[in-house]
Specification:
110 residues, alpha+beta, Beta-lactamase Inhibitory Protein, Chain:B, domain 1, 2 domains, four-stranded antiparallel beta sheet, 3 helices, 4 strands, 23% strand
């Protein structure tokens, strides 16, 4: 009889522990996922990425290589994507697209 009471007490302790773990899991699931940390160096800031650009590339291909531009202008079917360092504006570059195709690029002076 005593052994049954001890087993019952152990089962009660285990059930309490399970409830606590389940509550902790629910709390963790309620925490939003962390926002990814952006890379310290933007892709356009690497000379090797500018070397990958070729005439005729699409805007999507350029943005895939250099990342999103810091500014852009559009006149008729000509778009210019500007890449500029936000700190001191020492590095600047641009890509010109006509009809969604790269026609001219001015890489930063690395």
């Amino acid at each position: 009889m005593k052994a049954m009471q001890e087993n019952g007490a152990k089962a009660g302790n285990i059930a309490d522990a399970i409830l606590k773990v389940e509550a902790a899991v629910r709390d963790l699931k309620a925490i939003p996922a962390p926002v990814p940390i952006p890379p310290l160096t933007p892709p356009w800031n690497l000379a090797s990425n500018w070397n990958l650009l070729t005439q005729g590339m699409s805007r999507a291909q350029v943005v895939e290589i250099l990342g999103p531009p810091t500014r852009e202008t559009s006149v008729m079917d000509t778009q210019t994507l500007y890449y500029r360092d936000s700190v001191g504006a020492n590095l600047t570059g641009s890509v010109t697209l006509e009809g969604d195709r790269l026609t001219k690029m001015v890489p930063p002076a690395f």
